[in-house]
Specification:
This protein starts with a strand and ends with a helix. The strands form 2 sheets. It has a 3-stranded parallel sheet, with no helix packed on it. The chain has one domain (2-79). It is of the alpha/beta class. It is globular, with a radius of gyration of 12 Å. The relative contact order is 0.27. The chain has 4 helices and 5 strands.
């Protein structure tokens, strides 16, 4: 599974670790293993993580916690 840096997906143990923000996950353990992180709006970064073990991609259409950054149409279509 992979997701994007500076994302926020909720406050459960899994979602804080998937969000990739240490401030939200540093006090939780054990965290789910093998969650990889790509750069938001960067298809080259995302494409480096796609392989035969990819089971899911977590992405927001607009990153609110990351600074209210909307996904470009090209980026969103590319990770779909």
């Amino acid at each position: 599974m992979w997701r994007f840096k500076n994302a926020f997906h909720g406050r459960t143990l899994f979602t804080v670790s998937a969000g990739g923000q240490p401030a939200y996950s540093q006090d939780f353990a054990p965290l789910p293993p093998d969650i990889r992180h790509a750069v938001y709006n960067d298809l080259d970064s995302a494409s480096q993580l796609i392989d035969d073990t990819t089971c899911a991609v977590i992405v927001e259409p607009v990153q609110g916690e990351g600074g209210v950054v909307p996904a470009t149409n090209t980026f969103f279509a590319g990770v779909a």
